[in-house]
Write a structure and sequence with these properties.
Blueprint (H helix, E strand, L loop, with lengths): L3 H12 L5 E7 L3 H14 L3 E6 L4 E7 L3 H7 L1 E14 L4 E14 L3 H5 L7 E4 L3 H13 L10
Antiparallel strand pairs: 1-5, 2-3, 3-4, 4-5, 5-6
Helix pairs in contact: 2-5
């Protein structure tokens, strides 16, 4: 029985991971084309562009996933966050796109939080949602990535 407990604990903790998940693959050639495609896909999937720069090779978008009732009860708004990075591999000449899926909870917007004198403000990093992971894969597919590597 003592040998089973660590295995069960590891499996349970893996399911509760707050770590982002990364997907990547080779895109059609052209760094600027890959970047513009990533921006367009985030917009098409209703993500709000928070930050990005072609020269730095990344764009980050956020989409709210929580409803009003959940926010009022928990005091937190949940958002899927996708960060797409584009880069050329000089060794192969290929253009790559990497998409990192994560999720955050912004606190202190709810009814219960408003009644608390000791308001806790901030943001918690959560494990990516299933919809965020699916959106990351969809972005890659729609930008011409044929085979994305397994999540890391």
């Amino acid at each position: 029985m003592n040998r089973i407990a660590p295995v069960v604990l590891t499996v349970l903790l893996a399911g509760c991971s707050t770590a982002p998940i990364s997907f990547q693959g080779v895109a059609p050639p052209g760094l600027e084309t890959a970047y513009q495609c990533a921006v367009a896909q985030l917009n098409l999937m209703d993500y709000t562009i928070e930050d990005g720069d072609l020269e730095a090779g990344f764009v980050r978008g956020r989409r709210q996933t929580s409803g009003v009732v959940q926010e009022l009860i928990t005091g937190a708004a949940h958002h899927d966050v996708l960060t797409a990075s584009v880069f050329d591999n000089p060794a192969t000449g290929n253009t790559h796109i990497r998409v990192v899926a994560s999720r955050v909870a912004d606190h202190d917007i709810g009814l219960i939080a408003g009644l608390d004198d000791d308001e806790e403000q901030g943001q918690n990093q959560l494990g990516p949602s299933d919809s965020g992971k699916a959106d990351a894969q969809r972005l890659l597919t729609n930008c011409g990535v044929v085979a994305a590597t397994a999540p890391r």
